Amino acid sequence: MKSCPTGTDQPSQNQIKKLKTIISNIPDDEALYQETDIIKALGDPTRLKIIHLLSHGELCVCEINAALEKPQPTISHHLNILKKAGFLKWRKEGVWIHYSLSNAKTIDNLNKLMENR
């Protein structure tokens, strides 16, 4: 087991000062909870498929249902999570809702994230 660099069980005053500086630069808990919600929204294969589908342009919810071959309530659930996280914009036309990505660079950013892991 590796011991603390000070040779004791406690960090030195300089280490504590450095840690406090680091902690002060970390976003507050509220911001981190929002970031967590965004990351959770991407943590499902169906939602990732929806993002990939919409990277090719706007789709009606009926088209998303047909493409993914899942029940409408399931697709609606995933769309609502993506909307809440800010990934989607939508417009209503008659009884149908059309979805698109709120940011055209979403898929590029997602691909960069996957490349840099």
List the keywords:
mainly alpha, Arc Repressor Mutant, subunit A, 6 helices, single chain, 117 residues, 3 strands
Structural notes for this entry:
The protein has 6 helices and 3 strands, in the order αααβααββα. It has a domain at 44-117: Arc Repressor Mutant, subunit A (Orthogonal Bundle). Strands 1-3-2 form a 3-stranded antiparallel β-sheet. A hairpin with a 2-residue loop joins β2 and β3 (96-101). The two termini are 28 Å apart. With 117 residues, the protein is mainly alpha-helical.
Q: In the CATH scheme, what's the topology name of the domain at 44-117?
A: Arc Repressor Mutant, subunit A
Strand content: 5-15%
CATH hierarchy class name of the domain at 44-117: Mainly Alpha
Q: What is the level-2 CATH architecture name of the domain at 44-117?
A: Orthogonal Bundle
Q: Describe the largest sheet.
A: 3 strands, antiparallel
What is the fourth-level CATH superfamily of the domain at 44-117? Winged helix-like DNA-binding domain superfamily/Winged helix DNA-binding domain
Secondary structure: number of strands: 3
The helix/strand class is mainly alpha
Shape: elongated
Question: How are the strands ordered across the major sheet?
Answer: 1-3-2
| Uncertain segments | none
Describe how the helices and strands are arranged:
Layout: H1 13-24, H2 29-41, H3 45-54, E1 59-60, H4 61-68, H5 72-84, E2 88-93, E3 96-101, H6 106-115
Antiparallel strand pairs: 1-3, 2-3
Q: In a few lines, what is going on in this structure?
A:
This protein is mostly helical.
